[in-house]
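Q: Structure tokens for this one, please.
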Amino acid sequence: MEPVKVGLLGLGTVGGGTMNVLHRNAAEISRRAGREIRVVHAAARDLDPTGIDGLESVQITEDAFEVVENPEVDIVVELIGGYSPARELVLKAIENGKHVVTANKALIATHGNEIFQAAQRKGVTVAFEAAVAGGIPIIKALREGLAANHIEWIAGIINGTGNFILTEMRDKGREFADVLKEAQALGYAEADPTFDVEGIDAAHKLTILASLAFGIPLQFDRCYTEGIGRIEPQDVIYAEELGYRIKHLGVTRRTGSGVELRVHPTLIPERRLIANVDGVMNAVLVQGDAVGPTLYYGAGAGSLPTASAVVADVIDVTRTLTTDPENRVPHLAFQPDELSDLPVLEVEQVVTAYYLRLTVEDKPGVLARITGILGDAGISIEAIKQKEPREGETQVPLVMLTHSVEEGRMNEAIAAIEAMETVTAPVARIRVEHLG
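A: Here is the predicted structure, written as tokens:
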């Protein structure tokens, strides 16, 4: 049988890893796929071939459109990243009747609806396992392994950079800015770390997971996103004292009113397995009605872990090359004409518990007035910690855990508390998820 011929767009970290995995495991991959898989054409600018195997038999070009226009190429693997020209290249590949494999979460989250519609019309597959959580096969788990379930919620640590920063802050008591510099020096964070520390990268991934879980169109612009830059070492310490750990969590949940879609710092009980995922590792917790909770853990980035997912997608596409296009696994897990118009909720409609840290004047009656404001808003308190003032200081930190409440009501209560003359700094607020 003829080999399946692959065109590779990008020979950077993931592209080089993909070449190495295909070369190193060629015999095993052929056994699994039923045919040889061969990269015949690749596009790269400023190519450094050091450490990349198998390039001697590959036609190299700087023009990625040459690859998608090559009539010999069966599968285009897009590893350039970003929005453009990735979108144009993927759509052109589809127009030319080629299957596509991509690791580009930003592309799928923002342009996936358009891309999947184009693929459906042409009868080709777009595979994107590597777009979420690197080497963890969470896309396949949701689309296939958990297909019998009504998915209730998903909670994930899906950005290794943020998890590394919060782990270092907890273990070593370091400041956010200090750990961020180290993450950049180690290559975990980009020179511009905005996508990682502000939650945009995680929001791209969560958008994809929510569509797979609940059968809704991709809606990245509806995802509430909050970064970790305001987390202070004292918050990490207080969380530990209360039996929690702070994680930068992506949460999506189906409710009676719609779908929650949010990324933000979150307190998680330290006894939960996901609370003990440290460093640059990723983990995704999925609650299904039949299977219960399932946890997927592993490397969320890196050359070979991501290449593992890319090559697995190439093998899947190879297996289905002769399959009736109408009977393939749908791109977003549900048949295209069965997607739901279930709305994505505004963050003010989300119901969750809260950690609050206030800086207040050490005066009689202050605590009573604060608890009165919370009580008037229907917010009950689970725990309170009030620290003794240091010698010569008149202000003290006051830490509270609340029971669950709608965020809109909490916003009103916080505004009233911050208006008090005896509250001397903005209220630090971190959402709490028990994940039970």
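A few notes: The longest helix spans residues 105-122. The chain has three domains: 4-135+303-338, 138-299, 350-432.
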